[in-house]
Amino acid sequence: MLLVSILRKKQSTELKPFSAGIEIKYTRLLMGTVVEITLGGDNEQVIKDAAAAGFDEIARLEKLLSHYQDTSDVSMINKFGWEKPVKVSQETMDVIDASERVSEMTNGAFDITMGVLGRVWHFTKDDKGEFIPPSEDDVKKLLPLVDYRRIIIDRDSSTVKFAKDGMRINLGGIAKGYIVAKAVDAIKKKGVKSGIVHAGGDMFVFQEDGNAPRKIGIQHPRKKDRVIGTVEIANGAVSTSGDYERFFIKNSIRYHHIINTKTGFPAVGTQAVTIVANDGMIADAISTAVFIMGTEDGMKFIEDLPEVEGLIIDANGNITVSSGLKGRLSLISEIVF
Fold first, then answer.
1. Beta-bridge partner residues of 202
2. C-alpha 256: how far from chain center
3. What separation in angstroms does the CA of 189 have from each of 36, 52, 204?
4. Best CA proximity match to 262, nearest among 138, 102, 110, 104
5. How far apart are CA 130 and CA 144, in angstroms?
6. What gap in Å lies between CA 306 and CA 297, rounded to an integer?
7. Dist. CA 298–CA 273, nearest whole Å
């Protein structure tokens, strides 16, 4: 979660002054989280129509990409992909294709086939299971099914198939960033030129060139409703992966939803990662990958990527910032973890 505050109502509006006229915030419950669309302009009806278009696009794409939706492309792949090629939408193909590229870049730290581990790990009521850690034996039985290289993609026919029976995918580490960016595209088509779309840990800021950047709060991973600092964003995506959103504690151990694809257990050594990039989908996937990679390897990876910056908070609360982000980041002088 990125902004300092988030409204807990299913749908609401908030009107406040804006440099170009007015700024209106709309909220709606989608993708298992509160989605905020904040838009600026001088015509309230245009803003309202644009927000509706953004929410409609989010709802449409959620129906394609969520494994919680029984008829989604992802659910169809998981049900039938082991026996035959499954026809999917261009949007689903684009996300899976990008997922494979990030998997290759990160040597498998990011891998959508970790979805099979959802059979033994449960972090929300929608997962329909107990909030208890599985046995090592149960996890080890599933690890041979975690391998992005065993996804068979036919781009010409827009089909996806698994090379091995029992495989499953989960686009949770990349789809939300993609959907948020697509919502921005839908909003822009309605004539709105400035705003923020915010969904859980993913955000996209957009405005006309020359406007002052927005200051975006980065949430404290251990103190709800507090921030560790702010980052200035004029145009682009901000994605945060943290161990504090979906987790349970058992025997004083925190078990969270960001799974190390090599061990099958929650990644250790990191509390949160924030990535700033031009592409929302890539920012989302990289924040997940870097969380798993850890501070040393993760920061080296960030520094090697063009137009990508990041911040990593390790298990002890130490903060490491990429070279290109330091001039845009303001940290609170005394941060207590």
1. 199, 239
2. 15
3. 18, 12, 16
4. 110
5. 24
6. 16
7. 9
Let me know how long the chain is: 337
The Cα angle at residue 126 between residues 125 and 130, in degrees rounded to 5: 45
- Global pTM? 0.92
Task: Tell me the three state secondary structure of residue 309.
Answer: strand
Q: 100-149 pLDDT, tens per residue?
A: 999 999 999 999 999 999 999 999 888 888 899 999 999 999 999 999 99
Residue with tokens 């082991």: 82
Residue type, 155: R
Question: CA-to-CA distance for 214 and 331, rounded, in angstroms?
Answer: 15
Rounded Cα–Cα distance for residues 204 and 21 (Å): 21
Count of domains observed in the chain: 3
Write the CATH number for 232. 3.10.520.10
Tell me the CA end-to-end span of the chain in Å, nearest whole number: 17
Q: List residues bridging with 25 in a β-sheet.
A: 14, 38
- SS3 category, 175: helix
User: φ and ψ at 264, to 5 degrees?
Assistant: 80, 5
pLDDT tens digits for range 170-216: 999 999 999 999 999 999 999 999 999 999 999 999 999 888 999 99
164 strand-pairing partners = none
Upper half-sphere CA count for residue 171 (Cβ side, 13 Å) = 33
| Residues 226 and 312 both lie in one domain | yes
Which range marks the domain in which residue 245 is found?
Answer: 213-337
For residue 223, how far is the Cα from the chain centroid?
20
